[in-house]
Amino acid sequence: xxxxxxxxxxxxxxxxxxxxxxxxxxxxxxxxxxxxxxxxxxxxxxxxxxxxxxxxxxxxxxxxxxxxxxxxxxxxxxxxxxxxxxxxxxxxxxxxxxxxxxxxxxxxxxxxxxxxxxxxxxxxxxxxxxxxxxxxxxxxxxxxxxxxxxxxxxxxxxxxxxxxxxxxxxxxxxxxxxxxxxxxxxxxxxxxxxxxxxxxxxxxxxxxxxxxxxxxxxxxxxxxxxxxxxxxxxxxxxxxxxxxxxxxxxxxxxxxxxxxxxxxxxxxxxxxxxxxxxxxxxxxxxxxxxxxxxxxxxxxxxxxxxxxxxxxxxxxxxxxxxxxxxxxxxxxxxxxxxxxxxxxxxxxxxxxxxxxxxxxxxxxxxxxxxxxxxxxxxxxxxxxxxxxxxxxxxxxxxxxxxxxxxxxxxxxxxx
Length: 415
Ligand SMILES: Nc1nc2c(ncn2[C@@H]2O[C@H](COP(=O)(O)OP(=O)(O)OP(=O)(O)O)[C@@H](O)[C@H]2O)c(=O)[nH]1
Hints:
Layout: E1 5-9, H1 13-25, E2 29-33, H2 36-45, E3 51-55, H3 65-72, E4 77-81, H4 86-93, E5 99-102, H5 107-122, E6 126-130, H6 134-145, E7 150-154, H7 157-166, E8 170-175, H8 184-194, E9 201-206, H9 212-220, E10 224-227, H10 232-257, H11 267-283, E11 289-295, H12 298-305, H13 307-324, E12 329-334, E13 337-342, H14 347-363, E14 366-368, E15 371-373, E16 377-383, H15 389-405, E17 411-413
Parallel strand pairs: 1-2, 1-3, 3-4, 4-5, 6-7, 6-8, 8-9, 9-10, 16-17
Antiparallel strand pairs: 11-13, 11-16, 12-13, 14-15
Bound molecules: guanosine-5'-triphosphate.
Pfam families: GGDEF (PF00990), Response_reg (PF00072)
Enzyme class: transferase
EC number: 2.7.7.65
């Protein structure tokens, strides 16, 4: 039984084939049925599904009965429908479904793919609901949990601030305005003192008919405003827009901080962070060590086995460095050159760990297509007593030069 299985229910086989292919491409397992009768059978064997994609109209269940059946089994469901009149829309939205997808064009199936990706991503996203009304919280929780979000709740602004301190995976706050202790309008600027728009979105919800309220919320730092009553489509669209903004910023930030090939931190990030770490070390009078690592005769690896093989070795080297030094700041400086900053570490300890690494590389077989090969490592190391990473780097670089001169495959400590 797998929670990673998508249940696909449609009497039209060309539609199930397309949805099946989309789900499989995304790494899901699938179960496909073409009638209500088959659906009942499948469910008796297993009702553990990630979600279900349900046809509104089946020959033996013409009025959305399959949707009710699946939801009653506790399976989150989205609906595929050929009819898109207002009556059908109302009927679908009166049920606690994830969403509906009109089977109008081929783009509808792109939407199915996006929906599945969204549902998978949502499993790691926590939303904080802030409302003093239990029924409002229950309603919002029900709408959001069917989209797989993790949920926390608070009854007023002060509680909300405490919950934000407790959970670091909250990406979105949905807040009411009128609440005892601290209102939504008071809460929003308090949140903004600590959390930027790129990290945390705020959507305010209110039934107040004061048109100025939305402007006041937006000016105090909210990202969006919803007036009650709102449709499910509007609610979800605003939730996803705001989360997508945060996710795009995260993607851009990742690209800025990481090396494209190895996904290791890059030179720019290393310099920025090493300053912060070395300042902390100075304050606590602790020792730090810097090492620069260079693969030996890498040009000949590229020349002999090709650039793609060289890339594989760089990626595997990055993986080994992250595994060996999880608590250190590691980065790819460029080309076949990497570096490590050991915080709170004596030179003796760093020497021990780096010598072990040299030995490990000497004995390690890199796997490239149809072959395995050894690539050794030279390292220059310097303690960070001069306080500036650029000075330390110069000394470590000279030590690396000596390691290369002495025959490579070794560690040399700076004078
Ligand atoms: N495959 C691959 N090769 C790279 C990349 N970046 C730099 N290189 C190659 O790394 C090689 C570095 O060569 P050299 O600087 O001569 O150093 P070396 O051959 O390792 O010699 P020593 O350092 O003296 O042992 C060059 O062939 C570059 O083209 C990359 O992203 N991928």
